[in-house]
Amino acid sequence: MFKLSTLLLAGAAAATFAAVPAVAQQKAPLSILRIIDADNYDPIRTTATAAAEVMYMLADTLVTVDFDMKTIKPGLAESWTISPDGLTYTFKIRKDVKFCDGRPMSIDDVVYSLRRWTDPANKSPVSFRGGPVKDIRADGDSTLIYELKEPYGDLMFQLALSFASVVDKATVEKLGANFGVQGFNGTGPYCWSKWTPRQELVLKKNPHYSWGPPIYKDPKPQIDEIVWKVIPESNTLMAAIQAKQADVTYYMPYIALDTMQRIPGMTVQRQDNYIYDVFMGFKVDKPVVKDKAIREAANMAVDKEAIAKAIYFGKGRSLPSLLNPAVVDYDQNSAKAMPKHDPKAAAKLLEDAGWKMGADGIREKDGEKASFTVYGIRNSDNPRISEAMQADLRKVGIDMKIQLWDATVAWGKLATQEFDAFLMSYPYVTATEAMSLYFRSQQAPTPNRMNWKNPKTDELLKAASMATDADKRKQALAEVQTQLTEANVWVPLSSQPLWIVATDRVEGARAHGLYGAGLYKGLDLKLKR
């Protein structure tokens, strides 16, 4: 393992800085470092967290989410009511909102944006998040009616996500497929200025903006210009922040956090309510892994606590259950069904299930080797996670072959039926959202890459989604969490931590994290010099 002290030697750091243009110590711009860019910034055409983290600054949504990741707060909607049958949502829309080009936002803009998102004709990969829409319409000049075909209890949280951003129809029609590539016009605190893909995205302050959500102290942006810089190499990113050639990041290598905390004036803080989980899922209809004994033994053999410590250097957590304990409608009792780390018990389970140890150390059953292939994205964590899992599984006689791909190739590979298991990380806010995304039959073959098609699961998730009574929703979700935990469809691994690191030039930095967006709206941020 490399030594952090070596990386941070002044001479080495100085050499590294050549890749990062110097930033003058002035009140603009604020330089935010990240490791990856999005392919586009049209809210309905991308699922990338790299898009969402910028979108929240460029645009607004009807409602917002507080720092606790559970409480819905006003956004473009000042207030709202929900009909007793859960079918009609009525929103009172603000009248003081302007787009970046200075044009006042109207109720028609809101209707247009939400219809654009949910209309099947637009083939948005995130349209399902808007629920079973019957109609979205205006009632007067400041009232929005969002009508559903059936109740959808997750709607308010989904309306807070970047996919539901309000955009300017004229700009969308003018740019066509290049909206979010060559330009953007929203009502956010910051405005699109210039994008150089895979290098930087420059935002300017929206001079009209004064309607920030109540989770912030100041509803107005205080910084004239923000530059989102892409620095793929983590050591380069770390050196730039330490040398104060950039201002803030939430992509700091975990090994560097303790060092950053010791630097005078550096702000290092964690968002304890952040949810971005890592798991391995099994294709349950594939040879070998279709055997529940293999899947359960894998859950018992993998030392999740050791992996979390090794990957996050004590700054992250292992997952004790299918879902994150911080999520809305988490069921604590289902966690009891999650197999505990016990390699000896895993080996006995396999032996009892007929998987006998071969001369090469790999178990066999009916002439078939206990071997499977896992696909995943090649990033900073997955190689180490998969190799640690591979070693743990080999100890109990299971051979896991690893195939990781660059992100430009990986998503295509993960849409195939070539693999037996896959590594994935994902953000979510509610239990309904997470399980509906991955486990409904209609979500196969992707994102339900497990090919899990179970009528009981579908029935419970439908009941949870349609429930207007919170207790009934929680009961349905508790049952499905227990069912999926007992089936060992996933090996839950860890919860990625969100840590923000800001230099002494920055005031007001506070970690948020909705859908991976560490700075969310970017409000309350100020520059000292």
Could you please describe the fold and organization of this structure?
- By secondary structure, the chain is an alpha+beta fold.
- Helices cover 28% and strands 21% of the residues.
- Strand 8 and strand 9 form a beta hairpin.
- It is globular, with a radius of gyration of 24 Å.
- The two termini are 38 Å apart.
Q: Tell me the number of strands.
A: 24
Widest sheet, order of strands: 8-9-10-1-11-22-12
Helix content: 25-40%
* Beta-strand percentage range: 15-25%
Q: Which geometry do the CA atoms define?
A: globular
Let me know the largest β-sheet.
Answer: 7 strands, mixed
Taking the alpha carbons of the first and last residues, their distance comes to 38 Å
Task: Note the total helix count.
Answer: 16
Oligomerization state: single chain
Instruction: Enumerate the spans where pLDDT stays under 50 for 5 or more consecutive residues.
Output: 1-26
Structural class: alpha+beta
Mean of the pLDDT scores? 93
Write down the Rg. Answer: 24 Å
